[in-house]
Amino acid sequence: MEGIWKGCWTNNGGQPRNVQPFSDEDASIETMSHCSGFSDPASFTEDGPEVDEEATQEDLEYKLKGFIDLTLDKSAKTRQAALESLKSAFSSKILYEFIMERRMTLTDSIERCIKKGKSEEQCAAAGLACLLCVQMGSGIESEEIFKTLGPVLKKIVCDGTASVQARQACATCLGICCFIVTDDITELYSTMECLENIFIKAYPRDRDTNGVSSTPNTVLHISALLAWTLLLTICPMNEVKKKIEMHLHKLPSMLSCDDVNMRIAAGETLALLFELARETDADFFYEDMELLTEKLRALATDGNKHRAKVDKRKQRSVFRDVLRAVEERDFPTETVKFGPERMYIDCWVKKQTYDTFKEILGSGMQYHLQSNDFLRNVFELGPPVMLDAAALKTMKISRFERHLYNSAAFKARTKARSKCRDKRADVGEFF
Fold it and tell me: Where are the domains of the chain?
């Protein structure tokens, strides 16, 4: 790309090489080499000797500026690599001031990549849009970003000619960005309707159908359903009642889908709908409760030999909790630890919200829970906890200590697995 230069690197003899512009052939390779430092979010927080934080920040921002420029490159591979590098940085650091100055440039780049890019590039751009809004929080700047990207995302989601993966990524992005920025109730309802029109296509047309076959669009239906469910958690109660009446008797049909992820998404959505229904009406009554609990119990104890062991294990774990929620109004509280703090996930609404942001932030979730004002507000954690240098030092363990701990844990896991294998070996496989 013209205007972006490789720089004056020295050869083995110490002489500077001729400065050359990026070419289409080597741009992607060059970008990938620069991007490698961002491939693992942990690289931002590795232990090591004390460094000049100001210089490190300047170096980081210099690299990020280069990646932003490269999102406009002629090479699709270069653009995608730059988008992925920005995603890794945004998920691992709070970069509010840096992004604030360049939010419109970033928005324009994302819009261009979603409109003109192919599947993988569109997915990367949609993921970056999510992280951009997470960084900016629920202010007027994020609203401007969503006003630009919202219509583009909706267009891709509804475009039957676009790749399923791109539509799936855009559906997730649409739900998350709307959740973060929308104060306009009309926009909230419009976005939910867009997502609703996608996942209702997974409902069986014949009410007597016993099973639902998965299709290439099933992954899209799952993402649209989960994004819609997230938005339902911030709807006014009268709208929640309408949606419950509309979908609560249809969703159980998805429990018969032959795709395990669809069954799980439908089950968790049902648990959340029951939780919201009981909040809005203490005397809430579901007519087909006996039939539904039978279905849920069957999934919680599923021993179908035709299903993969991993899928069965995952399904049984989820549906035990779903069954408890529907039948006993109970939720197994989870504890999330980050730094010196603890957060308790004690309801399905909170679980759905946490799982959504964990999916897009990955290993950066803990860092953002500690430092991101928007996320702390969502989970009612209060202002970030300020720790002095002494407190931070006592919390940190050295790389060597971490290595010893990991080695010990690995050996313990190996021994435990060996014992399990020995026990399984004693069970006759032929009977």
Answer: 62-203, 236-332, 338-401
- Please tell me whether the overall predicted TM-score, pTM, comes out greater than 0.85 for this model: no
Instruction: State the pLDDT at residue 266.
Output: 97
Residues 6 or more apart from 342 whose CB is under 8 A from it? Answer: 335, 336
Higher pLDDT, 95 or 339: 95
Q: ∠ CA 151-170-264 to the nearest 5 degrees?
A: 135
CA separation for the pair 175, 153 (Å, rounded): 10
Does residue 117 come out as left (phi exceeding 0), alpha (psi in the -120 to 50 range) or beta? Answer: beta
Neighbours of 291 (CB within 10 A): 11
State yes or no: pLDDT of 311 exceeds 90. Answer: no
- Helix, strand, coil percentages (3-state) for the chain, rounded to 5, are 70, 5, 30
Cα 119–Cα 222–Cα 113 angle in degrees, nearest 5: 20
Query: What average pLDDT does the segment 37-43 reach?
Result: 43
Strands (E), 203-354: 334-338, 341-345
Burial code (b: 16+ CB inside 10 Å, e: under 16) for 379-411 equals: bebeeeeeeeeeeeeeeeeeeeeeeeeeeeeee
Is 253 within 8 Å of 291 (Cβ atoms)?
no
**Tens digits of residue pLDDT in 101-142:** 999 999 999 999 999 999 999 999 999 999 999 999 998 999
Residue 334, H or E segment = strand 334-338
Superfamily for the 62-203 domain = Leucine-rich Repeat Variant (1.25.10.10)
Q: Are 259 and 307 in contact (CB under 8 A)?
A: no
Length of the chain measured in residues: 431
Between CA 76 and CA 86, with CA 81 as vertex, the angle to 5 degrees is 125
Number of neighbouring beta carbons within 10 Å of residue 237: 11
